[in-house]
Specification:
Blueprint (H helix, E strand, L loop, with lengths): L43 H18 L6 E6 L1 H13 L5 E5 L2 H13 L5 E4 L16 E5 L1 E2 L4 E2 L14 E4 L16 E5 L10 E6 L1 H9 L13 E2 L2 E2 L14 H16 L2 H21 L4 E3 L11 E6 L4 H13 L16 E4 L6 H19 L1
Parallel strand pairs: 2-3, 2-4, 4-7, 7-8
Antiparallel strand pairs: 1-9, 5-6, 8-9, 10-11, 12-13, 13-14
Length: 375
């Protein structure tokens, strides 16, 4: 390929955004069930569809019966903050941060809840020393750092005999990575990541130790209505049966149901993980073949298989903006600039709703953009 030769083949679906992410292959709005639209979410049909979404999430994610699943407002952020505001303050807190969203939970703990947590940090691309974590504390962390491409390699570092709660923001990890449910007390995510669903709704999964905390502890600060998980001194069980705290978008619920049924059709959790792994391996091959590309996450053991963050030789934010803009203008790749707070680079979503053939087709376009800007 000469310096400015445009590649012959484009990705068929150039959707590489890390949120909202690519819709499942074969998706179209005509395929969504619409009977629940225009009806109350409290009506029989609304409750049934919300309940089905919860049941499908349990089935695909293999969530044990010991854990409750609730649909909550505010996307993943709403789910994490609901857990923080309702459960923290009972014991010391440790927050781990190695990317933007982890830092956001540090800010919540320090500036909003004012609980003076122990903060364990690492630079972008690195994972902190997980052996430093004191599990007599409640611990908050991102399972997969969406803005750095760094994930925890497994749950072995989480103490089985922990006294504190394990609170995991796993929004770009679920449906792509193994979650050891016996090590998880609170887990959150949103449909708009690995499922390719619509935004605005979060999912809150509570283990029995989290429920016990809610039933035995009342925080000192006031709770907004949308955060309240207790009613008349007992857990609001309806939340975990489809009776959402705030009015949900039934269109978004139907979209999530489509995505979950698609996930089942490709082999469930194992199939979803395999697709993400294949995509990440394909992108890694592209990186290894180019000396001007690199991984922000240097250790493969802690490198994400969904939100893969790349370094570009000599690039600053302006270069990356132009690089991503060239590809978007050609409809070859959308939304691949790195997160605004992260080091300048590219971020390419490799979750299960992306097709490996489209990752493969992306390589020559990256070459074209690089040649165009550095000639």
């Amino acid at each position: 390929m000469t310096e400015h030769q445009v590649p012959a083949r484009k990705p068929a679906r150039p959707f590489f955004s890390s949120g909202p992410c690519a819709k499942p292959p074969g998706w179209s709005p005509e395929k969504l069930s619409l009977e629940s639209l225009g009806r109350s979410h409290r009506a029989k049909i609304g409750k049934a569809r919300l309940g089905l979404a919860i049941d499908l999430m349990r089935e695909v994610l293999q969530v044990p019966d010991t854990h409750r699943i609730g649909i909550v407002p505010g996307s993943d952020t709403g789910a994490v903050e609901m857990a923080m505001w309702t459960m923290l303050g009972a014991r010391p807190v440790t927050t781990l941060a190695w990317e933007s969203f982890g830092e956001g939970w540090v800010t919540d703990a320090v500036k909003q809840l004012k609980i003076d947590p122990t903060v364990i940090r690492a630079d972008y691309g690195q994972l902190p020393d997980l052996s430093q974590v004191d599990w007599s504390n409640d611990v908050i962390f991102t399972w997969n750092g969406t803005t750095s491409g760094v994930r925890v390699p497994n749950g072995d570092w989480i103490a089985a005999d922990r006294e504190g709660l394990c609170i995991a923001d796993a929004t770009s990890a679920v449906f792509a990575q193994d979650i050891p449910w016996d090590k998880i007390d609170v887990l959150t995510f949103s449909w708009q990541k690995v499922l390719g669903g619509e935004g605005a709704h979060g999912v809150l999964i509570l283990g029995p130790r989290a429920v016990e905390r809610l039933e035995t502890y009342t925080p000192a600060w006031p709770l907004p209505k949308v955060f309240r998980l207790m009613s008349k001194g007992a857990l609001a069980e309806g939340i975990f049966k489809g009776e959402t705290i705030n009015t949900p978008s039934m269109l978004a619920v139907e979209d999530a149901i489509f995505a979950l049924e698609w996930a089942k059709s490709v082999g469930g959790l194992e199939g979803m993980k395999a697709r993400a792994n294949a995509n990440a391996a394909s992108l890694d091959k592209i990186v290894q073949e180019r000396d001007w590309l690199g991984h922000l996450a240097s250790d493969p053991a802690s490198r994400s298989n969904t939100s893969v963050c790349l370094t570009v030789e000599g690039a600053d934010a302006d270069f990356i903006k132009k690089f991503a803009g060239l590809l978007e203008a050609e409809d070859a790749a959308y939304d691949i600039a790195g997160y605004r707070d992260a080091p300048a680079g590219l971020r390419i979503w490799c979750g299960a709703t992306v097709e490996t053939a489209d990752i493969e087709a992306l390589g020559p376009w990256l070459d074209w953009a690089w040649a165009s800007l550095t000639a």
